[in-house]
Amino acid sequence: MKTQNQHAPARTISSVFTGRGFVKDSLIFWAVVAGLAVLGALIGDNYIRHVFILVFIWCIVIASWDLILGYAGIFNYAQLVFFAFGAYSSAMLSIYAGFTPLLSIACAAGVGAAVGALIALPSLRLKGEYVALFTFAVHLALPPVIQQGKAIGMGGHTGLLGVPWLNLFGHQVSTIDKLTWFWVSLAFGSVCVYLIYFIVLRGRMGLAFIAMRDAGTFAQSIGVNEGKYKLLAFVVSAVFTAIAGGVYAHYTTVVTPKILGTEFFLMAMVMIAVGGLGRFPGAILGVFIVVIGNELLRSFDDYRLLLLGVAVVILVIFFPGGLVGLQRRRSAGRGGQ
Amino acid sequence: MTQMIEVLLSGMTQGAVYCLIAIGLSLVYGASRILNFAHGSLYTLGGYIAWYFVVGYFSLPLWLGILAAIPILAASGVAIERVIIRPLRSSANWKVNTIMVTLGLAFIIENGLQLVFGPGTKTIPAFAEGVVTMGGITLSWYKIWIFVVSLGLVGALEFFLTHTRYGQAVRAVSQDMQGASQVGINVNQVFALTFALSVVLTGIAGILLAPVFLISPLGGWGPFLKAFVIVVLGGLGSTKGAFVAAFILGVLEAYIIFFLGSNWAMPAWLVMLIVVLMIRPKGLFGVWEN
């Protein structure tokens, strides 16, 4: 990943605007993905594979969060709500309706789109931190709703158990089969991340997002439809996150309200804080560092969440731009603000 | 009928305490435009500090516990502003950065409390026992006390903001930060002051409610969400608005709990939030701004 960091056109946004270096960057991206795929076969240890599977799933979540928070500049903190909806809907569809997992993940994406639009509607009228609070309020209010949802088969506190294994063209992929899962999650992760950073954000939509973020009024005056693109930011972000949720559900075969607990939320925040917002591949690097770091911290289990919280605060205060901010500052030749 | 009045009165006492939490949130936002996501966990912190003094390690009476907690809460408020908020104020993305750090701080406080005091719930005995019965309506003395103390604190704050030099400085900074600093107001000092006041107010609210609800490390998010709904309904930065909204929503909550059960309280607050945001996003008395 190091080499990718150095070559990525993250330094100035203008090059991303014009799509300059698109083919070269794509090639580097897929080369890294191919390298990871080979690496998966070389690693013998299933635990390390498991950690990488988590990394790839998280990459989708964080890339979509980066899309809405970093690129579109919308303070959305309901990202894990999308994830939870994706996981629950995919699990429920495959358990109760007997959908094959790939189909139910596709349906979960549809559910994600609907939830994204639903959360977007009130948010469109709000500004700045109001959006942050509204979306976070949704996040906080969801676990009690899931508890109430026991009546419609959401499993309540214990969650949904026995989510079916992924069925790949007639081949059952059990949770134990880490190598296949490594490739499956890498495939999902790389395609989603590529679509987010290379197709959506380098296209017209990404341009509109950045314009809205950097100069909202000006963007509107030159004809960027603010309402439409904010809605799109929510929907696109939610669709990808819901897919991640679906993959996660079929990988762990258990879905509980823990998804919306402190640990997941803190992890996501630290990833963003480590990587930095709005500049590929910052957030993705953040995912690798944080998931692996979190596993290394397993032995400090009591203090882990506290340490994660401290990490967020310290990183944001001392490295406000994350890793990419650091690189940018160095290449600009001077430190400070 | 008497039951309805009882629900109304209990909603009003609840509203008075919510008012304390909400005004603390609103005060900081008004002065520094920072939404403190750690506000709820500071509410919990207040409860734990009082528990430490009253039940856990010393056996002080509750009123003395509150007095002992005040300087600690004020100092934490100043420390938060100094250490966490001030370095970020000049940065380019200070809005998203302050949201991040205050959220991070909330998790630090929560998990810190959980490590120190354990994940279980704690309670503090009320300082007033017994009930008063008037015309068939029963009210506990403690609730009356909560009501009086909360209103007293809100009144004192209002007096401070309107009649003292420091209070006027706070209002000046709220209205126009740059203008205030041009006429010689030390803006940083005002920020620190508002943070201290805000933490003290929410901490005291946490202490006052500790005998009624239980204290638990994660218990701050509920009050925080409620305070936010109140502040939004009242208008961000408006003390008067928060005061009126706290009573409206407190009473509404009491009736919802009475008719539908306490499971519906949090979803109801969320619905109220959405309704307020859709119908009148600038709040009852707020000024909509960019």
Summary, kept brief:
Chain A is mainly α.
Structure description:
The complex is a heterodimer of chains A (337) and B (290). Helices cover 72% and strands 2% of the residues of chain A. With 337 residues, chain A is mainly α. Chain A has one domain (22-261). Chain A has helices spanning 2-7, 13-18, 22-42, 46-71, 79-96, 101-124, 128-148, 178-200, 204-214, 216-221, 226-252, 262-275, 282-296, 304-318, 322-332; strands at 166-168, 171-173. Chain B is mainly alpha-helical and 290 residues long. Chain B has a single domain, classed as ABC transporter involved in vitamin B12 uptake, BtuC (Orthogonal Bundle), CATH 1.10.3470. Helices cover 74% and strands 3% of the residues of chain B. The longest helix of chain B has 31 residues, at 2-32. The mean pLDDT of chain B is 84. Classes of the chains: A mainly alpha (337), B mainly alpha (290). Chain A binds chain B through residues 69, 75, 77, 122, 125-130, 132-134, 136-138, 140-141, 144-145, 148, 262, 266, 269, 272-273, 277, 302-303, 305-306, 308-313, 316-317, 320, 337, and chain B through 35, 37, 84, 87-88, 90-93, 95-97, 99-101, 103-108, 110-112, 115, 218, 221, 225, 228, 232, 263, 266-267, 269-270, 273-274, 277-278, 281, 290. Chain B: InterPro entries: ABC_transp_permease (IPR001851), BCAA_transport_permease (IPR052157). Chain B: Belongs to the binding-protein-dependent transport system permease family. LivHM subfamily. Chain B: It is found in: Cell membrane. Chain B: It comes from Antarcticimicrobium luteum. Chain B: Pfam families: BPD_transp_2 (PF02653).
